[in-house]
Amino acid sequence: MLTMIDAVQKDVAQLHTCLSPEVRSAHVPPFITRDIPHCGHIAPSFIRTPRHRSFRRKKDFKHATSGISSTNAGHKEPQTEEISVPNNIDLQGLPQLCFPGELQIETEPKEDHYHFLVFTDVFGARTYGVVVQFYRSIQEGNSFQNGQAHWDAAVQKSRMSLYAPFSICVISKFPYFTAFKDSLSCLTMQVKSCHQVDFDHKVHEFAAKLALVPSPPPGTLHLVFNLKPLQIILPSKEDPKYPTVDLNLHIPFLCFKPECILKILTCFLIEQRIVLLSADWALLTLVAECFILYLHPLQWQHTYVPILSKGMMDFLMAPTAFLMGCHIDYFNNINSEIEGLILVNIDDGTIKSSDLPDIKIDVPEIPLEAAECFIQRTESLQLYYDLELSHLGSSTDISELRMRRREWQQNLNFQIQQISLELMVNIFREVSDFLNYEYRVFNSEEFLKTRTNSDRSFYKKVLETYIFHSFLKARLSGKMDAFSYAELTSCSENDRGKMLASPRRPTMEEMAMKRERNSDFFMIKRLVASMPNLPVDTLHDFSIVHRSTGKNKHENALKKSMKSTRFKLPEFSCPLTYSSVIEWYTEFAILLSKAMSSTGPENSSLLARYYYLRGLAYLMQEKFQEALSDFQNLYKTDRDIFPKELVKKVIGAMSPAQRKHASRKPELKRLISIMLEKEGDMTASDEHVKTFQLPKTHMHQDDFLKRIQESGIVKDVDTILRLFDALTIGHLKQIDPETFKDFYNFWKESETEAQEVNLPLEVIERLDKNECVYKLSSSVKTNYGVGKIALTQKRLFLLIEGRPGYVEIAKFRDILELENISVMFFPLRIPALKIKTTHKEPFIGNLKNERDLWLLIVKEMWAGRKMADKHKDPQYIQQALTNVLLMDAVVGCMQSPRAIYAASRLAYFDRMKNMVLPKTTSETLKHKVNPSAGQTSPQAVNALLYTPGHLVHLEEDENANPILWCALSEGKVVLFNAKTWSIQQHCIQVGNSKLNCMLAVEFSQVWVGSQDSSVYIINAHSMSCNKQLTEHFSDVTDMVLEDKGSKFSQKQVYSCSLDGRVICWDVHTLEIKTNFQLSNCHKLTSIKLHNSMLWCCIGDALLEVKKNGQLLRKVTLQENPKGSYVQFSSFLVFLEENQLVTACADKGEVYIWDLKYLSQPLQKIQLQACNSIICMIRVKNQLWIGGKVSDKMRGKIYVVDTIKCRVEKELVAHVDMVRALCSIEDRYVISGGGKEDGKVAIWNVG
């Protein structure tokens, strides 16, 4: 919307009388309407029908007569046309915002002045305005009333030059402050001196041109249009996760010191009543917007009025949090009359609270480490553009100068966004450690306990705010915004591992850092206090690097992505008519098509932006089918910018005939069916954030399970059930609130004590950097000396008292025997624990009444270590630690003779330590990992994929490591570093359904087939999914890559779905090359490519077909002459041997066929005790077969020698069926278990 406002004065003779502004005209799109009123079925939501109209507000009045003052003339009430404007724009209040200061007639023109407005509706949606104030010449002989000039002959002889103030305001839902400022600069050049007759026409024409320009989608494509003499750039968001930025983000850094900026940000975070003050109206909004952008992705959701006019000053009396701005002239009045305000003086660069003696505002300091990191990072910013020009020659091209300045500003804005985002991540990084995602619980009390004393007051205030509550809702909903991405990319592998570890304790590395900070901090601060100019770069060096969001690595990568592309819009024609507007959009679409033809498929991100814009252009031409096709292509290029709601409206606006015609294209038929699906049946997601509260009633098993999971103590269901059994020993099977409270408090006290453990540096140096102290005994006498016994995940050691000392007692894997003994200390016999090891004399500790508990603890850790070594599964140690700490808490809360017996019910590994693992399995098994770590229950591993390190990446790139991809249920893909077997990325979300198959395509893509009938494409560089192929209509079950090896041949992928459809995709363009439907097929489970022919498994048969679907051969096998056909689950084609290998779905039989003679199999291999085969791969001369055995769905792997056709090994490592297999360079085989197991095993290939 564009409004023009002028000033009204009753008596022009009194030049210094204040004027009253009023709306002269308002122009609201659509500006151009259809010439022919009836031309088919048109949706009013999209076609430019006259819902709104450009109007001019008119008033009837009497002409002033000669010699008679207008104040003496008779006056009629003005007759005003009914007008239509956006709901959140108040035309009556708009004039005083466009002229927030005093107005008067001037005798000489003043310089144009720009400022910026923000309007907020009742739902919190913001609309933005850019205002220009300028002066137009009038004559003293003209009576200037109601926006019109009138002849006054009596004063014509003594004519003098007078100038009246005018204002034009452009209003948009997008914050294009710079673009609209540049646009208004072009307009004011034309309207300052034009005739009155042309004035409104030029303004209307200007508004109509702006209305044609679409807003660019997120990405690096900026739009450029010509308004003469300037080229206007309409910038896009750099990323969908970031807001639009079209202003200079470094303005606050020119006004305030970094420490002051941090103080102001604290006021935002604790939701104070903030007032910005300046003599420059423009700075009020710009500075306010900058601070709001610094907070991103946290959002200011309270009252926001960046400019208050004189008549709006009573807004400052509002009792709730707000952000407002007013002129510096009101500073003294506000400071002395209104209590509880934070006054931010932009002109002086200061911040203070209002001077009322009864009210003092406590603004805490921002957390120290985050503040130090922010200050150091801001010191590297180059804030002065002139310094960038010092080595450059003078440019004679204004466009080049503007472009150079914009690129510099864009780069600086990016750096400031990164620094401010890093600040938010450093402040709130550890919040996720105290979230329970399943039950949407935030344990605020425990979070506060872990904060340092100096930071606790800050967090206490922030945790009570609405801004933080909204932030929590986004975290618990799994929102992948800028914060989530920065938090993820800045985590080291150790950090990611610790995020899944439960229970968590400070590692030796963290203890060392803490000691270093404590010892250095006060010394450095004293030096800084005595020498204020001394830099503090050495403060928190390690911490700052550790908590940085990857400045060097990620910033360089993102800078490359910031290289923007500018697309020039067609020139605007004059005058604008309906036909000329259609021609403009037609030319727009043609230019986009030309740009697309010159853009290669490798630049899919840019292609997506072109598709998006061309879809809009077609939409404005009423070419609905073409628009839908372009929007459909966004799935293949960048689904993140797919305009779902817009497409729904387009489909709803189409006539039945149009919709039927569009449905003839399979991809559009699929799109239309998806968009028309009702979402009303879907249950709304719970966005409520809960605070953990202790129960107040007795709990049975199910309620206890829920309460423990809510508390965050344990997630594993089986462990919680054992805990319930332990706490209810000798009672009815229910737990009273008092017992739960005692247990919970003891657990949390133990956590707190572990956080406060302060080991001497000599001890820290003797332990591994990732070791944690989980329990300390009381001071006891031992044969190694007097001290406290300490337990870590790897060993027991004695912390010598009196002098700092460390004596290792035993590593758990070295323990030979544990024994309860009594030591004679006349006249008493003191209970003691004896530990025999392989390396030294037995350890004897006089533990007294702690002995029985420590015996349980050490036995469980010993058993856990033995199980971990035997099963090559390090998670057993973590589970044993959990059991040990639960034992400790049970004994601590029960305080009764039966406490030790109750705790023994939690000794899971001590009971399982004698479980026999077959020797062959133990020798072949290399390692185990758990993709379901951190979940309440395991998830089936449905597909596995190995990708080698990307040689094209830089060495420091984390993704250069080989990666193991694990596809789980509910659309989750978990990644492991295949060198260290540590977790690489917790989860890439691709839809919400079961994932059936994965395929590596080139270095940069991984394709994932889903049960929701889509193929998702993951970018292996960014580890994100923004492409989706939706042409299948049933579960995507398998994919195969055709690579002819020639650099001139195009790679193709064949995908199949359960309903028998096979689609061939061009890898580069993602276009369908061919597709066919297998007749009478309802169970197509897998496909293979052999000698340019496709082999398809359809359950009871294997089909050999040409690439066009023509059937060549069919392979079936009858169980008996009159029986049904054998059901095949999987198959392989041996190229060299020219053989076909098939596996049965309902029994343990493998058949080998000669590809030339498929009437009967050559040989049958019987797998002992196997009742179903799930998967099968070939590695060297071995056939690895995964299936399930008859006893309780247990999984087994059979290794078959393909030459001798016999089973060489039977491997048992999964408690559920083996659902997936893959190989790593013929050196290792990876297997994935079913939902009862959920683990991945790595096997050595013999």
TrEMBL record:
UDENN domain location is 54-482
Q: Which SMART domains match?
A: dDENN, DENN, TPR, WD40
Output one GO BP term: regulation of Rab protein signal transduction
Q: What is this protein called?
A: UDENN domain-containing protein
Q: Name one GO molecular function term.
A: guanyl-nucleotide exchange factor activity
The protein's superkingdom reads: Eukaryota
Keyword terms: Guanine-nucleotide releasing factor, Repeat, TPR repeat, WD repeat
TPR repeat windows: 608-641
Q: What is the native source organism of this protein? A: Chiloscyllium punctatum (Brownbanded bambooshark)
